[in-house]
Amino acid sequence: MMKIYHVEGMTCQHCVHAVKEAVEALPDVQEANVDLKTGTLKITGSVNENELKKAIEEEGYTLS
Q1: 15 with 61: CB under 8 angstroms?
Q2: CA distances from 24 to 3, 21, 39 (A)
Q3: Which segments constitute the HMA domain (predicted)?
Q4: For residue 29, which phi and psi values (nearest 5 degrees)?
Q5: 29: which strand partners?
Q6: Which letter, b or e, does each residue of 15-32 get, where b requires 16 or more Cβ atoms within 10 Å of its Cβ?
Q7: SS3 23
C-alpha cells in the first residue's frame, strides 16, 4: 500500500536524505520517496502514523 504525506521544513537534499533514512528505518516500510520541490513523502508498505510523526520530528521536520 502507498501513502502520501506532506513534510514541512525541508530546504535541501540533505533534508531529503535525512527524512528518507529516518522513514525507511521504521518497521514495515519498504520504500520512502521524498520530493523536495513538492514537500511530499510517498511511503510503500505499512506504517504506524505515530511512529512516522515521531521519526520526522526527531529529524527536525513537521509531518502534515
Answers
A1: yes
A2: 14, 5, 17
A3: 1-64
A4: -90, 120
A5: 45
A6: bbebbbebbeebeebeeb
A7: helix
pTM here is 0.93
Please state, for a pLDDT cut of 70, what percent of the chain lies above it: 100
**How far is 49 from 36, CA to CA, in rounded Å?**
21
**Type of residue numbered 2:** M
Rounded Cα gap, residues 11 and 31, in angstroms:
21
- List, for residues 16-43, the tens digit of each pLDDT value: 999 999 999 999 999 999 999 999 999 9
Give the domains, in start order, of the chain with CATH numbers: 2-63 (3.30.70.100)
- How large is the average pLDDT for residues 39-56? 97
